Amino acid sequence: MTIKNIAGIAALSLGLMAGSGLALATSTPSNAPAASSADGMTDIDRASFVKAVSSANLFEIETSTLALEKSTSDRVKDAARMIIKDHTSAGKAFSVILKAQGDMTRPKLSPHHEAVLNELKATKRAGFDARYIEVQTTAHEEAIALFTTYAAKPDDVALGAFATKTLPALKTHLEAVKRLQK
C-alpha cells in the first residue's frame, strides 16, 4: 500500500468522522505491548491501538445501550444516545481504515471491558446512574491518554490521523460526562 493510498484512506475516514462529533472511549489493555521512547513517553504499536479501540468502541455502545434501559435520568439517557450515535459512526470510520489495509479485526470486548459491562448489568437501578457516569469518566480519561500517545508517535499514518482527529471529540465527551456528576 502506498503513502498516497494511505493518505486517501485517512482523508475518507476523517471526512466521515468530521460531521459526527465522534468519540471513542478506550482503555489500554494491561497486556498491550509498549515500548518506552527516549522522551519517556510510552509508544503504542498499531496492533495494540487497534485492539484497544475495537474493544472500547463496542464497550461504549453496549454500556450506553444499557444506560437507555436502566437509567432514571433524562440527562444520562441523552448522553448515552450521543455516545451510541458517535461510537456507531466512529466504528464505521475505523472499519473503513482497517478494511482498506486488509485488516479484518472484528470488535471484541477485552476481558476488562467485559467484566465492567457485566458489573454494570448487575448494578441495581438506584445506583446505576452514578456507576455509569464513573465508568464513562474513566473510559474517556483512558481514551484521551491512549489517543494522545498514539497520535504523538503513530506507526500507521491513517490510524495516527484518526487518533489526532478523534482527540477533540474525546475531550468534549469527557467534559459532558463530568457535567453529569454535578
Q: Overview of this structure, please?
A:
With 182 residues, the protein is mainly alpha-helical. Helix content is 73%, strand content 3%. The protein has six helices and two strands; from the N terminus they run H-E-E-H-H-H-H-H. A hairpin with a 5-residue loop joins strand 1 and strand 2. Helix 1 runs antiparallel to helix 3, helix 1 packs parallel to helix 6 and helix 2 packs antiparallel against helix 5. The longest helix has 28 residues. It starts with a helix and ends with a helix.
In a few lines, what is going on in this structure?
This protein has 182 residues and is mostly helical. It contains 6 helices and 2 strands; from the N terminus they run H-E-E-H-H-H-H-H. The longest helix has 28 residues.
Helical stretch tally: 6
Overall helicity: over 70%
Shape: globular
Oligomer: single chain
In percent terms, what proportion of residues is strand? under 5%
For the sheet with most strands, the description reads: 2 strands, antiparallel
Count of β-strands: 2
Q: What string, H for helix and E for strand, traces the elements in order?
A: HEEHHHHH
Contiguous low-pLDDT stretches (5 residues minimum) are 1-41
Briefly note the structural class of the backbone: mainly alpha
What Rg do the Cα atoms give? 16 Å
Topology readout:
Layout: H1 3-18, E1 34-36, E2 42-44, H2 46-70, H3 74-100, H4 111-122, H5 125-152, H6 157-180
Antiparallel strand pairs: 1-2
